[in-house]
Structure formats: structure tokens, C-alpha cells
Q: What sequence folds into this?
């Protein structure tokens, strides 16, 4: 299994208690077309739900230095169908993306997005959010779907209990997640595909410890923290990530699923996480909320109507170098298609540059200083 | 006035009666930023209604060899406001397009798109389609708006009667259009701006003759056929364009407004028209209707679900070289933002290449043969 993924830890910062924290590393992936990939961590993965990062092309992803993107098993299974994608040459070819792809397991979506779902020890029966049709995912089928898609990193099928949930409910989900992880490992994948296990345990430290021990002992190529950023406060999420990160094997990539805001990425990296994904930069872009080096902007705001300034003067992206805030506001107010696109290009560029800056700070052993400057700039208020 | 536009007729094909028909030429424009433009005709102008060709960037327009685009006075006046656009550096800078821009006069929109309108000899009072607010356009204000926008070609403010309309109604509109043309000519523009007059006359040949004589005698830099493609059959439209084109001054560019389908462009060029604009390639792209060298495709069609083929094997555009019909269908069915964008890139590329092919055929004196092949290929049916 190790031939499909190789992780190199380049540098790790120790906290005051001597615990290894913020890390810079490299994830080498075998690649499906005989071309291997190397991902520099920490890394943010743009979300390409249904075979497209909404509104932008893969050329644009390359231009903004996106190193790896995420695809959603639940969505691609329902439409256009994983077998169809496989017939058409797998997901990379289908969507014209040559870089690595991580697919989630579909677990989170069947619990959060699908209609009425019924869970048992064998799997989950759910209704499609598109047409209400009935479907059933098992740990084995999740593997088969991801195998067909041909992604580079395959996630184990897990049970993600809602928040809040009692310790009993969370523990039951955690136990089931371990059994499902073991079952998924029995399904052979394509030779280039790596597998990640998922730690559950909600906001209960003892359960996180237990889950990390049990999942961490299985032969996965990397490990994710699941069940966070599902409704708890950002403070609780950050606290649990900080508690849990050191519980994960040091010599494998660590992935914090579904996180988050720029400050959550900073705190996740500080905790010792290597990989992140979130719909926030893309979804908020479509809603006119833009992240800049000086704080958040709502481009709808009337104060931008006459602004000839770039969105973020520190950003080298296409949106910031070619267009004014006044133009971006006009596009948003006029509900023009170009609005979502230009906003998405900026927000993703911002997230990706943020990760690159953190990596550089870690390698210089000056992460805390960098983070201090980051927070100070964020508070500098946008005119 | 001639310093802002210079038209060179390179080659014109004579019909059996010795009438000059299909033409290849060059339109030289002074340019607003000290950089002159040369447009090779016949030419299709993509429509950038509200400061953006819907869904695509000006870089993409450049890549597809768009030579000139159209902006809408009515839309830009209402939102973001022509004075704001001028303050922000005029329309070219606002939307980051360095090529030439033609602005329409707003006349067509106040009659067709705005709410209740009231027309008198002085101008038109109308309600905004956005918020119902009341506004008034006069020939003078239309010039002032287009002056503020800084477009390269300014259209005279005309009255476009609906179809069908009685000869009396059409004649009254035609007379008013002449008076309005004369009034507009009194308004000074920026030195780089050229002006086009608009011929009306509906589907009445005698009125077209009269309008062409009266408008044609005024010191415009080019002339347009208005009042076509507003509800009459394509056959009637083509017939009237064929009748009217030779009535326009031979030494000035001729523009057929709001036309049309690929076959309408072919027949317009055959008639002796140099310039065209239409929302069809962009609007239909968003609705999944795609134009190819082998005929029209509705990408929603289930028969494309598993097609690994490019949309149009003869097309060198980004959409055709990178993506399959199956992927384009998936994006459309899933209502993904990328669908409109990739479809628009293809349809506009198709229109622009079509014009380039016609120009080449004219220069080779083989337009009729080219047109025959075009129609044969269109009928070759898409699998």
C-alpha cells in the first residue's frame, strides 16, 4: 500500500511542551497516468463536487497553483454515475485535470445532504437529493465507486454523527467507523490509489484518543479527522483539532476534513495538520464574500460602487490584477455569470497563497510570528 | 468625422445583375487609448450587454479572435450608470477590454425590454426593467451616454416600430428616426468615436429606399439596417436584407443589427453586409444549444451521455479540444456554472470562425461555393 503514497516530513515545530506541531512536508503520489505527483504541505484542496470546481476550469486551478482537488463520491455516484466516469477514462480525464484528486467516501453527504437515511451495521440506505430515488452505500460500495473514479486518495467510509450528540451515540458511530474501515481495506483498489482512514469521536477527548488508536493501527496511507466543523463553534473545533492532531501517526499525512475559514486553517496548521478542504472559498465567492489579506469583504457593499482599487492589492490573481472593486460589485449586483467566476478565482488564490505562506514560515521556523502578523493584518479593516 | 473611422473595401463579389454583393474589407478605428484598431470584415460582434460578455473574460474573447464587441447603452445607463463608468476610466478600462466597442443607442431596448414606454417627437419615457423607475431617453442623451462610455462606434438613437406594423406606423417611425439622427449629429463626441446611422422602414421596400436615401445622405461613418429580426420570419428578414444592403453607401461599413442564426449570417454576407451582432450564440449556449460545423446540437440530449467525442471535431476552441460531449452534457444537466462558460466559448468561437471562413471565401472569389458546402455540412446531421 505504501507504494501509492510516500510522505516526507521536512520540518516540524515543537510547542512549549515539546509536542510536534506545525509541519511542512511532501506527499508523493504514484499517479494514475504514469506521472507521479508531489504535493507540498500544508495544502488546501479546492472542492470539485461534481467533476468541476464550480465556475472555473482546471487551467485556472493550475494557474493558481492548486496542487490537489477534491471530488465527491456521493455526487458523482448519483450523477453522472461512477461507472460512466470510468468508461470515459476516469475522473481525471473526464474533467481534464492532470493533478491529484482526493475523493471523499460519500459518508458525510449521505448523512447531511441526502433525504431520509437509515443506517445499520452493514451500511446506509438514503434518498437522492436530486430525485428522491433510493440508494444504499456500504463500505465496500464506497471503495468500488472511488476505485471506478480512479482518484489518487480514497477515503474510508465512516459514520459521522450529528452535532450535538451524546457520548453513547458518538461512541457507537466511532465503533462502526472502525469496523467499516476494516471492511473497506479488504476491497482492492487500483495500484496508484492511496487510502486514508478517518478518526471520529466528536468533541469527546477520550473517544478521539480511542478512535485514533484503533484507526491509527490500521494500514492506511494517511489519516483524517472527521466529525468536525459540523455545527460546533469554531473555538471548539479548533480546540479539538489541537487536541487530536498529535494523536495521529507522525509519519503519515494528516487531513482535517471540511475546514474552514482562513483563521481555522491557520489554527489547524498550528495544531499539526497537513491537508484541508472546504467549500467556503468557492461557496462564499458565489455569495459575494471575499477573503483578502486585510480581512473579509462583502462585495455587494455600496461603498465599493466607485472604487477603482483592486480587491486585494497584495494578491497577484487575475481578478485582482485586472478588475476594480467597482467592476466586481457591478457584476455581483447584476447577477452576471462572470461574478462567481472572478470571485472564485480570487478566493481560491487567496486560500492557496495562505497555505504557501504558512509552509514557508514553518520551514523558516517562524510560524508563530507569521501567524501574529496574519491576525494583525486581518484586523486592519478594509476601507 | 472621417478621422475616427476609415473603411477599405478589399474585394466585392458581383451578382448576376452586376450588383455588388458579398464584401471583404477593413475598418480602421482611431482607438481611445492612442492604439488604433483594424477590424477585418465581415465580422461578428459578441454582445457584452452590461459590461461583460456573459460568463467569459476578455482574455477568452481575445483568444477566440473576437475583433470588436457590443455594449448596451440602455443596460449600462441603468446599471452601473454611464457617469460612473466614465469616472472609472470608460467602458474599455472598466471591463478590461482593449479591443474596439460598439454601443447601441438604447432605442431598441426601451421599446422591447423596458416597461411601459411613451414616445413623442422629443424622445421616449420608459420604466426600468430592473426597478420600475421612470427614465427618459432623447437622441441627445443617447449620444451623451455613449460619449461617457467612450465606445469606438456610437449608434444613432432610432425608433424601432414593432412587427407587424402598418406602413403608416413604420413611415412615421422612419421620419422620426431621420430627425433624431440629425439631432444626434449635433452632439459632439470624443475625438476617437465614430458614428453610425440606422435605416428603418420595416418590411416595406419603398420605405427602406426612402430611409436609405435620407439617412445615407447624413455624415455618418457607417450605416446599419435596423428594425429587422424582430419577429418576422427568417425568410422575410433575409429577403429585406438582400434588398436593402445595396441601398447603403458602398464606401462605408454596413451593419445588420441583431442578426442572427449562422445561416442568417451567411445570407447577410451574401447580401453585402459587413457587420453583425446577436445574442444567439451566447444565450443559446446558456440553454445548451450549440452550433457546430455539422449542424445544431442540444447538449441535454441523452444520446450524448456516454459520448467521449468533442462537441465539434473541426473546432479548435478550448471546449472542443479539452472536453467530451459527455462532460458538457453532465455540466448542463447538473446546472454547473462551468456549463454556460464552456458552451459560450464554443458558440462564439464557431461564429467568429464562420465569419473568417466567409471572408477568406470572398477574397478567393468563391463565396457561393463556400456557402454551398456550408449548407451541405449543416445538413450532415449530428449523430
A:
Amino acid at each position: 500500500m505504501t507504494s501509492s503514497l510516500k510522505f516526507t516530513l521536512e520540518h516540524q515545530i515543537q510547542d512549549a511542551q515539546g509536542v510536534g506541531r506545525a509541519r511542512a512536508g511532501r506527499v508523493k503520489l504514484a499517479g494514475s497516468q504514469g506521472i507521479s505527483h508531489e504535493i507540498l504541505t500544508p495544502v488546501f484542496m479546492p472542492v470539485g463536487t461534481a467533476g468541476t470546481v464550480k465556475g472555473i476550469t482546471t487551467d485556472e486551478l493550475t494557474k493558481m497553483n492548486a496542487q490537489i482537488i477534491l471530488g465527491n463520491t456521493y455526487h458523482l455516484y448519483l450523477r453522472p454515475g461512477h461507472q460512466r466516469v470510468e468508461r470515459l477514462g476516469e475522473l481525471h480525464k473526464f474533467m481534464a485535470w492532470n493533478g491529484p484528486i482526493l475523493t471523499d467516501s460519500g459518508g458525510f453527504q449521505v448523512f447531511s445532504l441526502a433525504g431520509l437515511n437509515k443506517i445499520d451495521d452493514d451500511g446506509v440506505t438514503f434518498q437522492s437529493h436530486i430525485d428522491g430515488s433510493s440508494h444504499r452505500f456500504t463500505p465496500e460500495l464506497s471503495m468500488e465507486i472511488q476505485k471506478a473514479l480512479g482518484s489518487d486518495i480514497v477515503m474510508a467510509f465512516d459514520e459521522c454523527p450529528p452535532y450535538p450528540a451524546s457520548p453513547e451515540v458518538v461512541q457507537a458511530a466511532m465503533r462502526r467507523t472502525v469496523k467499516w474501515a476494516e471492511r473497506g481495506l479488504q476491497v482492492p483498489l487500483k495500484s496508484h490509489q492511496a487510502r486514508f482512514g478517518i478518526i471520529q469521536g466528536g468533541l469527546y477527548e477520550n473517544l478521539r484518543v480511542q478512535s485514533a488508536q484503533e484507526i491509527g493501527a490500521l494500514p492506511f496511507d494517511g489519516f483524517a479527522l472527521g466529525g468536525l466543523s459540523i455545527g460546533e463553534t469554531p473555538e471548539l473545533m479548533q480546540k479539538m483539532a489541537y487536541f487530536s492532531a498529535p494523536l495521529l501517526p507522525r509519519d503519515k499525512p494528516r487531513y482535517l476534513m471540511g475546514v474552514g475559514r482562513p483563521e481555522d486553517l491557520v489554527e489547524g496548521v498550528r495544531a499539526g495538520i497537513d491537508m484541508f478542504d472546504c467549500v467556503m472559498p468557492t461557496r462564499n465567492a458565489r455569495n459575494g464574500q471575499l477573503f483578502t489579506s486585510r480581512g473579509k469583504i462583502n462585495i455587494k457593499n455600496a461603498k465599493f460602487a466607485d472604487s477603482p482599487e483592486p480587491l486585494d492589492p497584495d494578491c497577484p490573481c487575475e481578478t485582482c490584477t485586472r478588475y476594480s472593486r467597482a467592476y466586481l460589485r457591478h457584476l455581483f449586483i447584476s447577477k452576471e455569470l462572470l461574478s462567481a467566476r472572478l470571485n472564485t478565482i480570487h478566493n481560491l488564490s487567496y486560500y492557496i497563497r495562505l497555505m504557501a505562506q504558512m509552509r514557508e514560515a514553518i520551514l523558516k521556523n517562524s510560524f508563530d510570528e507569521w501567524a501574529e502578523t496574519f491576525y494583525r493584518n486581518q484586523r486592519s479593516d478594509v476601507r
About this structure: The interface with chain B takes residues 50-52, 54-57, 59, 79-80, 84, 87-89, 94-96, 305-306, 308, 318, 322-324, 326-327, 329-331, 333-334, 336-338, 340-342 of chain A (CB under 8 Å). The first strand of chain A starts at residue 5 and ends at 14.
